[in-house]
C-alpha cells in the first residue's frame, strides 16, 4: 500500500487540492480508505487526519469500511423504477446472497443504490466498480452473478454490458453541422477577442446549466477582475435526474466543448481550466484525455496556442457521487479537494472562485454553444428561439415515450410538440428540469420550454397515465433528503422531515391537518435553505400538491389512488370524497403559473 500511495502522491505533486483524486485512486485499488491509507496521505499532504475523514464521509463513492471487490450500485432514478429496477434489485440481491447496502461475508461483492447515474434513456442502469452498466435485464443479472462468483476480471465481462448509446434523435443549430477543430479560436483571433465577446452578447446566449445567467455578461465580469490567475471550469457534473445531454455532448463534441473553454480562456485571460466530470461518467475519461492530447498535438492547447501568445491547459477532475457538487461553489470546493459544501455568495466565483481567484463556471452545452457562436456570429443564434430565450435547447428526453434520447429544439417549443416528436401519448404529466424543476400535468401541455415559462437544464421526464403521482414525488423527495449536503439545518433536517411527512400521508397514516403541516414544511425548507438544492427540494411535493390536492386529501381518508385508473374519474371520486368542488378549476389555474 505504501508504494501505491507514494506513487499517487507523486503523480499529484503532493498538492492538497488533489486530495479527492488521490482518495479515488486508493478506493479503486483497495476498495476502502483504511486507517493506514489515511495516515500515509496525512503525512504526504501535511493536512489533518480529520479533514481526510470528513472528505471520505462526504462523498458516496468513498468508504471508511471495505466495499466488496465487486462494488455494484444500481441507479435509483424514477426512470429506472419505471423500467423495473426494484424487482431487478431484489432479484440481484437474492442471487448474490447480499442485502442492499451490505457487503457479502466473503468480501467479494457489495450492493447498494445510487442516485441517478445519467442513463435514463437506457436503464435500468448501474455501476460496477465505477463502470457504467446499461439496460439491465434478468438474463443480464444472471450473467453478472456468475461473473462475480467466478471472480472474472471486469475487463473480461461481455463488452455489450457496458455499451452506452448516444440516442441523438433531433439536431438543429448546434448539432446539425460540426465546426472544424480550431475554427472558433481562429475566427475569434481574426475578428478580435473583444469583438467576439460582443458577438456572444448579441447572440443572447444564457447559461444552459439551469439558472440561465447571460453568458457574455458573466465572461465580462470575470475578465474585469484583476488577478494573477483566472480559471475556467466546465461543469459536467450533470446530476439532475433525467439529464444526460452533457454525457452525449462530451462523447460526440468534446473538441468543441474544449474549444469553447479555450475561447473563454482567451477572452477572460485564464491559463488553467478544469472539466469537472461526474464520477458516474468515468467511462468517458480516457476518450476525453485522448481529445486533450490531440488538441495539444494540434497546437490548440498548451503554450502559445495558434501562435497567438495564449497559454492554456485543461485538466479533467472526477466527481465522487455527490449531486450538490453540480452547484458551482460546491464544485469549486470539491476541485480544491474539500467536501462539496456550497459557499456563501457573494462573492461569486467570477470574483473569488478556485483558490480564491476569479473563476468562470459554465455548463458543457454553454461552452459548446459559445464555440459555435464564435464561428457563425451572434445573429444566427439570436434569430432562433424567443425574445428572452435565444437559440436552441438540448433536451434529454426519457420516461414514457417511444424514442427517448437527445433532442435539440428551438426555445419556445411547446411541451405538446415535444411529446409528439418523441412519441408519447396518454400523458399524465411531465417533469421539466428534473426534480428541482416543475411538474406539469396533462392540462398544461401548451406551455413552452423557455426561461420565461418552463426552464430546464435539459431534463424532460414523461409519465403516462398508468403512473403513480405519489411514487414520482416520493422518489424525488427521497432523492433530495439523500443528497442534502447537511451544512444548513433547514435543508438537512427539513428534507428528512419532508420525506417522513410525505411518506406518512402517502402510506395512509396521515390525519386531518397533516397536508397543511406538509405545506408549512415545504415553505420552511424553500425559504430558509442556504443553496439551490434546499430551495427547490420541496418542489416535487409543492407541484403535485397544487395540481392534485384532492389526491393528497384522499390519502388522509385512506382512499387509495390506484395507478392505471382513469385519472379524471379518480379525481372526481377524490373530489367528492374530499368535499372539494374546485379540483379541475384549480388544475387549470396552476397551469398558468
Ligand atoms: C444543487 C445544484 C446542482 C446543480 N447541478 C448542475 C450541473 O450538474 N450542471 C450544471 O451545469 N449546473 C448545475 N447547477 C448550476 C450551477 O450552479 C451553475 O449555475 C452553472 O454551472 C453555471 O453554468 P451556466 O451559466 O453555463 O448555466 C446546479 C445548481 C444547483 C443549485
Ligand atoms: S441547502 Fe442543503 S445542500 Fe444546500 S447548503 Fe444547505 S444543506 Fe447543503
**Share of residues in helices:** 40-55%
Rounded to the nearest angstrom, the radius of gyration is: 24 Å
Distance between the termini: 58 Å
Largest β sheet strand count, sense and barrel closure: 6 strands, mixed
Tell me the name of the CATH homologous superfamily of the largest domain.
NADH-ubiquinone oxidoreductase 51kDa subunit
Oligomeric assembly = single chain
How many individual domains? 5
- The CATH topology of the largest domain comes to Rossmann fold
Question: In one word, what is the shape?
Answer: globular
Q: Determine the structural class based on helices, strands and strand pairing.
A: alpha/beta
The kinds of small molecule bound in this structure are: flavin mononucleotide, iron/sulfur cluster
Strand content: 5-15%
Major β-sheet strand ordering: 6-13-12-16-14-15
**Low-confidence segments:** 563-567, 573-593
Give the class-level CATH name of the largest domain.
Alpha Beta
Helical segment count? 25
CATH architecture of the largest domain: 3-Layer(aba) Sandwich
Mean pLDDT level = 94
Number of strands: 16
Would you give an account of this structure?
- The chain has about 600 residues and is α/β, with parallel strands linked by helices.
- It has five domains: about 1-60, no CATH class; about 70-165, 3-Layer(aba) Sandwich (Glutaredoxin), CATH 3.40.30; about 170-380, Rossmann fold; about 390-465, Ubiquitin-like (UB roll) (Roll), CATH 3.10.20.600; about 470-555, NADH-ubiquinone oxidoreductase 51kDa subunit, iron-sulphur binding domain (de novo design (two linked rop proteins)), CATH 1.20.1440.
- Helix content is about 45%, strand content about 15%.
- The protein contains 25 helices and 16 strands.
- A six-stranded mixed β-sheet has the order 6-13-12-16-14-15.
- It is globular.
- Mean pLDDT is about 95; it is low at about 565 and about 575-593.
- The protein binds flavin mononucleotide and iron/sulfur cluster.
- Iron/sulfur cluster binds near residues 484 and 533.
- Flavin mononucleotide binds next to strand 11 and helix 21.
